[in-house]
Amino acid sequence: MSDTILVEDHGNWVEITLNRPDRLNSFTDEMHLALRAALESARDNGARAVLLTGSGRGFCAGQDLGDRDPSKMDGPPDLGHTIATFYNPLIRLIRSLEFPVICAVNGVAAGAGANIALACDIVLATKSAKFIQSFAKVGLIPDAGGSWSLTHLLGEARAKGLALTAQPLMAQQAADWGLIWRAVEDGKLMEEARELAVQFANGPTLGLGMTKELIQQAATNSFDDHIELEAKAQKMCGESADYAEGVTAFLQKRKPEFTGTKE
Q1: What CATH number does the domain containing 222 carry?
Q2: Domain end: 186, 201, 216, which one?
Q3: 152-188 per-position pLDDT tens digit
Q4: Residues near 22 by Cβ (< 8 Å), separated by ≥ 6?
Q5: What's the predicted TM-score (pTM) here?
C-alpha cells in the first residue's frame, strides 16, 4: 500500500490518516487512489465506521499544485478531468458508505481538503483549525462538492462570502454556523474522535446507515416523497436484529449488543 496514507484496522472500525505532512497532506494522484482503496477495503471487510484525519500540523491543503503547474506542462491542465477522475469518485464513495464517516480536522483544511472534510458525516475540529475555500486565490471555483456543501449547510450569503473572499473560517465559528459538528480543545481531538468511532462501530449500523442516506436525500426530495421513504426505511429497521436487541436491552435495563446486521 502507498505510504501516502496510514491505515489502522480496529476490527469493526478503521482509522485512515492522510500522510504527506511535509506538503500539508495535499493530494497527488497516488494518494487519491490509496485513500479510495482504503475506504473500499473498509467497506468490503465489514467495517462499521471510518475515522479520517491528517498527519502533522494540518488536515489537508487540497490538491498539490506542483502536479498541476501550467509552467511545467505543454498546455493548460485539464482540471475537469482531475475532478471527474479523482475528486468526484472520492466524494461519492464517502457519501455512499452505509456507515458513519468521521473526519477529525487536526489543522488547516484548505481548498478541496476542506470540502473532503465536509463530505464526511461528522466533522470534529481542533479549535485552532481553520477552513479555507482557497480557490478564489488561484482563479478556480470550489470543487470536491464545495459549492454544493457550502450552500446547503450555510445558505447562499455565507457560501458566497467564504468562496469569493477565501477568508479563513475558524473551527469554533464553523461549528456555530453549522458547517461542522463540533470544535474541541486542542489535544482532545483524537480522543473524542476515536470514542465516537467506537460508539458508531458498536451501534445499530443498519439504522445509522439509513439515517445518513435519508438526511442526504432530504434536500432534493419533496416532503411527501420523503416521509414515504422514511416509512420504508423504518420497516426495514423494525425487522432487523438491531431493533430487537435494542428494545430487549431497554426493557431489561442493560446495555445493548448490536451486531449491525439485518437479521
Answers
A1: 1.10.12
A2: 201
A3: 999 999 999 999 999 999 999 999 999 999 999 989 9
A4: 56
A5: 0.94
